[in-house]
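hi! just following up on the protien thing from before. the input was this:
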Amino acid sequence: MYVGLTRARHQVVVWWGRAQGSQHSPLGRVLLCRRPDGTVGDARPGEPADSQILAALEGVAGRAPGLVAVEEAAPASLQPNPTPPPSPAELSTARFTRSLDSTWRRASYSSITMAAHLAADPVVASEPEGHTLDDEPPGPADGRGVDGGSFGAAFPGNVAGPGPGGHWPLSPLRLIPGGRAVGTLVHRMLQGVDFSATDVRTVLSDAATSFAPAPAGVDLQILAEGLAAAVTSPLGPLLPGCTLRAVSRRDRLDEMSFELPLAGGDRPSGALTTNGIARVLREHLPATDPLSAYPGELEDPLLAARLRGYMTGSLDLVFRCRPEGAGEKWFLVDYKTNRLGPATGSPETAWHYRPVALAREMRRRHYPLQALIYLVALHRYLSWRLPGYTPASHLGGVLYLFVRGMVGPEAPLFDGHPSGVFSWSPPPGLVVALSALFDGDRS
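and the predicted 3d structure came back as:
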């Protein structure tokens, strides 16, 4: 009844017809059972008389002079001198003359890359409307065959598994299956937990049990222990000496949603293309950048190449901190539960999540494109909300946290980068140029 009475733009017509049980109807209760404080009670016993309903309706009309009319309906044959109905107007078929822009839509990283992911893995589906992730692969990935790169010192812990070049710590989440349901659960747990809590393991354990029942094959206590290791793992060169434990509630935003107009939004004057993004990347990325080869992969014909309308998404985590020797900076985090270990045989270890393997998975899943879209959103947000904002001073970079490879405080280092953490700090001019490209500036 509330919807029916409040959605009309010009006029509402409400009918009352006495029938058995009419006092139990929403309208009957609103007219007859309203208390002095405005709340509506349960129906009174007995069917109301027409005179009671008429008095109640006239009371409503009296409180809204000139806006509410009360009329008693009667068959036309009982009305004195009934007015003959007007002659029916001649009907004609309306003609639709407006053109529709079939390329205008609400796009996201997932919708752009959907066809490319389907070609690689047919079980990846389109973007869901609910709170289910679709940027996580649906099952295990085989990380074998990735070129090894150089290694740091072997991890000195007592829980280790074999890997090229020595023994490496086992992944604390090696017994947790892959898939979107697990990825969604991990995101919800990390979103709800205070990283800086005194006993973060207990907090994560409590959070895990609150989400019972768990997805098939998931031991919630093992999951909580594994995420506790991830929260205490070093974050790498962008944040030397820091872990997620250093991020307090007041310094973070979780699941920050955004919707950005593309080339004019409601009134587009052009389009955003993946080739245009690739061109901007080539102009700004030095040859030494870890993603310098990615622009060529953006020219994949399976990507949705032309976009008009809006770009939408949700940032897993944004936090601010002061890295050593620097001012306050803002960082973008995306959690990943991808499995990069072997499909069979030896268990997953930190070696499977070394930087070269993470970079390969980033490119294979087009995560750099996701990172760029999210960086533009963060850049816009900070430019609107932070006085004196400049990208060079305040944008710290991107951290893709592959939680299965984050094994705790003593995580092994590979050329200074801890296992499980892919960090990237793009040139500030790249983010500014991409933001302009999103606005339709093709110069």
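The domain at 104-438 is CATH 3.90.320.10 (Lambda Exonuclease; Chain A).
The two ends are 54 Å apart (CA to CA).
cheers
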